[in-house]
């Protein structure tokens, strides 16, 4: 296994090192990353970026030291983003990866906000930008990752547990959906209660009960006219999917009914228990 050590006072040279990069293009990064860097207004890599990026791209283990503000995070984030491109999410849903979260909220979003000069930045999904100088309103639905970190992959829960309290402290005001979560935020992150407002979840007026004929038509189209229970939401352990499936099996056994269970949602943190119960 190859190792390397960088220090901003003692630049490292290796037999495989390229000539000093005068621009980000010289670092052989993907075009979409170069475009993002240009959009942020950066043209010349810093010393730590010039030396670290080629080594990370080459798969070297690296220990680097540099002063705050010299671009260490980008020195590691850019080559990592370059390497995970083949595994990028190609669906219509946004990619949910901690490295991408950091790149967007701390490197790209501040520049975008500076261009439009908003009166208020509203984040409906609990993310914030620690680098943005603009007033912001944060919406936090729950802190499930604080109470059940085992329900998330390591990289995701590490990101949430590190950044979420910092996001909450940075927010000018916080909106949450229940008194329970408000108290949870106060207790977990020591946020003053006057900084948090409870606004319950609601629904748009477009959602209206269907008439009897439409209900029958939908039931006939999807379920051969059978009655059904429906679950809508992301399929992850904290939604209790495994017990839902077991409970439905028990209900069927006890009642000898032809009722169906309809589950609507994408797999998110799908685990072995859920898979085995489903089978």
Mean pLDDT over all positions: 82
What's the tally of helices? Answer: 10
* N- to C-terminal distance: 41 Å
> From the alpha-carbon coordinates, what is the Rg to the nearest angstrom?
24 Å
Q: List unreliable stretches of 5+ residues.
A: 8-18, 89-94
Instruction: Sketch the topology as an H/E string, one letter per element.
Output: EHHEHHEEHHEHEHEHEH
Main pleated sheet: 4 strands, parallel
Measured by DSSP, the beta-strand proportion falls in: 5-15%
Shape: globular
Per DSSP E runs of 2 or more residues, the count of β-strands stands at: 8
Helix fraction, binned, reads: 40-55%
Structural class: alpha/beta
Strand order of the largest sheet: 3-4-5-6
General description of the model:
The structure is a single chain. With 279 residues, this protein is α/β, with parallel strands linked by helices. It has 10 helices and 8 strands. The strands form 3 sheets. Strands 3-4-5-6 form a 4-stranded parallel beta sheet. Strands 1-2 form a two-stranded parallel sheet. Helix 7 links the parallel strand 5 and strand 6. Helix 2 packs parallel to helix 3, helix 3 crosses helix 4 and helix 9 runs parallel beside helix 10. The longest helix has 19 residues. The two termini are 41 Å apart. About 6% of the residues have low confidence.
């Amino acid at each position: 296994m190859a190792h390397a050590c960088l220090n901003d006072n003692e630049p490292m040279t290796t037999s495989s090192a390229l000539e000093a990069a005068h621009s980000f293009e010289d670092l052989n990064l993907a075009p979409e990353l170069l475009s993002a860097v240009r959009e942020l207004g950066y043209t010349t890599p810093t010393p730590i970026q010039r030396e670290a990026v080629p080594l990370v791209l080459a798969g070297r283990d690296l220990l680097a030291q540099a002063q705050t503000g010299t671009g260490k995070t980008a020195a590691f984030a850019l080559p990592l983003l370059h390497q995970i491109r083949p595994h990028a999410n190609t669906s219509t849903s946004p990619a949910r990866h901690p490295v991408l979260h950091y790149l967007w909220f701390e490197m790209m979003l501040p520049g975008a906000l500076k261009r439009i000069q908003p009166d208020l930045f509203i984040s409906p999904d609990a993310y914030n930008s620690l680098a943005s100088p603009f007033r912001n309103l944060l919406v936090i639905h729950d802190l499930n990752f604080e109470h059940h970190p085992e329900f998330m992959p390591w990289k995701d829960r590490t990101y949430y547990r590190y950044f979420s309290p910092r996001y909450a402290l940075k927010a000018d005001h916080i909106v949450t959906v229940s008194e329970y979560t408000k108290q949870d935020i106060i207790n977990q992150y020591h946020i003053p209660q006057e900084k948090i407002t409870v606004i319950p979840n609601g629904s748009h007026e477009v959602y209206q009960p269907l008439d009897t004929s439409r209900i029958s038509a939908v039931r006939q189209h999807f379920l051969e006219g059978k009655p059904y229970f429906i679950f809508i939401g992301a399929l992850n352990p904290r939604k209790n999917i495994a017990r839902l499936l077991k409970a439905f099996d028990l209900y069927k056994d006890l009642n000898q009914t032809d009722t169906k269970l309809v589950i609507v949602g994408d797999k998110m943190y799908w685990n072995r228990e859920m898979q085995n119960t489903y089978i």
